[in-house]
Design brief:
Ybab, Chain: A, single chain, about 110 residues, 3 helices, 3-stranded antiparallel β-sheet, alpha+beta
Amino acid sequence: MKDLNGLMKQAQAMQQKLADAQARLAELTVDGTAGGGMVTVTLKGSGELAKVVLDESLVEPGEGEVIADLIVAAHADAKKKLDARQAQLMQEAAGPMAGMMGGLPGMKF
């Protein structure tokens, strides 16, 4: 029974660490760029698009399709970075139990 109590304490500690990591994720922002920095987008930890910055040289007649493509590419770049940062934070929070948690529903590591 002693081992079960220890396991429960570890699970509770990990649950707190995961909750802390989720709180940090909510505050996280990442930037993604495209076109050599001509387009930058900022994503919040939730994945919500928070900001788009365009180089003024793009804001010319006939550049609409280029701008749209660069925004999509910058968003993909930011999303990739956000996903990697989220995975890293959750891995750090789970610590040595990450291997055991990977197979549980809703847990991605």
